[in-house]
Specification:
With 475 residues, this protein is of the alpha+beta class. It contains 13 helices and 19 strands. Strands 8, 12, 13, 14, 15, 16, 17, 18 and 19 form a nine-stranded mixed beta sheet that branches. The protein has a five-stranded mixed β-barrel with strand order 3-4-5-7-6. Strand 1 and strand 2 form a beta hairpin. The longest helix has 22 residues. It binds one RNA strand of 75 nucleotides through strand 3, strand 4, strand 5, helix 2 and strand 18.
RNA sequence: UCCUCGGUAGCUCAAUGGUAGAGCAUUCGGCUGUUAACCGAAGGGUUGUAGGUUCGAAUCCUACCCGGGGAGCCA
């Protein structure tokens, strides 16, 4: 049972800090609309910025997060998306009607409040707003109160109310961390010579042929599928631009119902021409360390809300562990696993492999038989593929999978045949081996698993606003 | 697909075969510093659905529906 985060202590307002600005990042929590309101020359400010207005009259616009009252004084907590601030309404200082309205206001009613900003040591965010006037925009009726009350709720109920649950403090924090992760990923690639070239979402056939695909009716009896990876297209764009990445949703019709699975998730997939397995390992490690550093620098408050042990993330910034599949099998057997050489790791194996590590491990040179058709064989050992998986610590599992692709036409044709894949569907892909074929490599990183790891979440469903899962497609 | 756990008030749960309860939410009352505020009172139930066993079923049995966790597969 997750404790409800519907209501909790007041805002990480942390006003006046320069958080997020060193990188020139756009911070969704720090831009105040400074327009004048109602001809009264009172600035409308966001809660995150309120510390800059100490001693001044301001207006905030938001929703009632929680309310406590004590006879002749009441404390409406207002959230506005940038933070939460406690307001103070004193009966003797306000028109009776206004005080009564506030005292009996219902949770999540929308309102605008004008008042004076005051530093307050007792407030979690360091500031309070002394109410001078208020406008209720929409009052939530008592007959149908806001369902997510400030107590415990079950996951089924919360997921049914996901559209409202997003307003809760922990969910809000997790999605802000996701925002930072996505921004960090893009900044990393954009500043390292990669060009964003997105892959299509409707695809004519399997990219890998292994996982189940979602099938759709296209026009004139044609079937198309929702993409499960943009990789094959990435190989084409890498030959056009040198280094590219695609970043978008992918779909897996696997009937997986675990804390690590969604049927729709976001994946970033870089692809590099004139590159090999070692480049994948280098870029993947740089990317992860870059993004972790960003999150640690810019999202301290959110990590605090999420009660994330940041020392674990700091430790993960050290150089990653590296081992071959052969070495991993030896280690697993020594730890009691039943694993046999030639089979892929299950989740229990992944956890076993990393439970004594404080940072990700890169496992490379898997048996070719368990990898997709396009993996290049190791030159010194043809039964091993030049693929690598990055396995995160703390049981978060595989967060990156990738490797070097076959660039030899004849070998690729042989592999298509071995995997019983129809050559016609891959003609365009084979062209890439006919016209200036070069060694090339790339990988995919699943955003939700990465965000779950950053946030220390139990389940990937809380890392995306509206998760799509085996038995849940609403709201 | 398989294994496993669950479904009782708006929410979270209790009640192990004998009168269906508590906390929160809602309403009313009290309180000038509350931090998931607190105190008092009230309203609120076809126990997931359909059968069955029994004098008697939330409780035991069968089927189905819905959901949680996991396996396989995967990021």
């Amino acid at each position: 049972m997750a404790r409800c985060d519907g209501t909790a202590q007041a805002a990480p307002a942390c006003a006046g800090t320069a958080r997020g600005r060193d990188h020139g990042t756009s911070d969704p929590r720090s831009t105040s609309d400074t327009r004048q309101t109602g001809g009264l020359m009172i600035p409308r400010v966001r809660v995150a910025d309120i510390g800059r207005y100490e001693g001044q009259a301001v207006q905030i616009a938001g929703w009632l997060y929680n309310l406590r009252s004590s006879g002749k004084i009441c404390f409406p907590q207002v959230r506005d998306g940038s933070g939460i601030i406690q307001c103070v309404a004193v009966k003797s200082a306000l028109p009776e009607e206004l005080f009564d309205t506030l005292k009996h206001l219902t949770q999540e009613s929308s309102l605008m409040i004008q008042g004076k900003v005051r530093a307050e040591a007792r407030a979690a965010g360091g500031f309070e707003l002394d109410v001078e006037s208020a406008t209720i925009v929409q009052r939530v009726p008592e007959a149908a109160p806001y369902p997510i009350t400030p107590k415990d709720h079950g996951i089924d109920f919360l997921m049914d109310h996901r559209h409202l649950w997003l307003r809760s403090r922990r969910q809000h924090a997790a999605l802000i961390v996701r925002h930072e992760v996505v921004k960090g990923i893009r900044d990393y690639f954009d500043s390292n010579g990669f060009v964003l070239v997105d892959a299509p979402i409707f695809t004519p056939a399997a990219c890998e042929g292994t996982s189940t695909l979602f099938e759709l009716d296209y026009f004139e009896d044609e079937k198309v599928y929702l993409t499960q990876s943009g990789q094959l297209y990435g190989e084409a764009t890498a030959a056009a631009f040198g280094k590219t990445y695609c970043f978008g949703p992918v779909f897996r019709a696997e009937k997986s119902k675990t804390r690590r699975h969604l049927t729709e998730f976001w994946m970033v997939e870089p692809e590099m021409a004139f590159a090999d397995l070692e480049d994948v390992k280098r870029v993947g490690e740089e990317l992860i360390r870059f993004v972790i550093t960003r999150v640690l620098e810019n999202r301290k408050e959110e990590l605090k809300v999420l009660e994330r042990d940041v020392t674990k993330l700091e430790a993960a910034c050290a150089p990653f562990h590296r081992m071959s599949y052969d070495e991993a099998v030896v280690k697993l057997k020594a730890k009691g696993s039943e694993i046999q050489w030639g089979t892929d790791f299950g989740n229990t194996d992944e956890t076993l492999l990393t439970d004594d590590l404080d940072r990700p491990v890169m496992v490379d040179r898997y048996p070719a038989a368990v990898k997709a058709f396009y993996f290049a064989p190791a030159p010194e050992r043809a039964d091993c593929a030049l693929g690598v998986d990055f396995i995160a610590p703390e049981g978060y599992g595989e967060i990156i999978g990738g490797g070097q692709r076959i660039h030899d036409l004849d070998l690729l044709l042989k592999r298509l045949e071995e995997h019983q894949l129809p050559r016609e569907a891959f003609e365009w892909y084979l062209d890439l081996r006919k016209y200036g074929s070069v060694p090339h490599a790339g990988f995919g990183m699943g955003v939700e698993r990465f965000v779950a790891w950053m946030c220390g979440l139990e389940h990937v469903r809380e890392t995306t606003a509206f998760p799509r899962m085996l038995y849940r497609t609403r709201p």
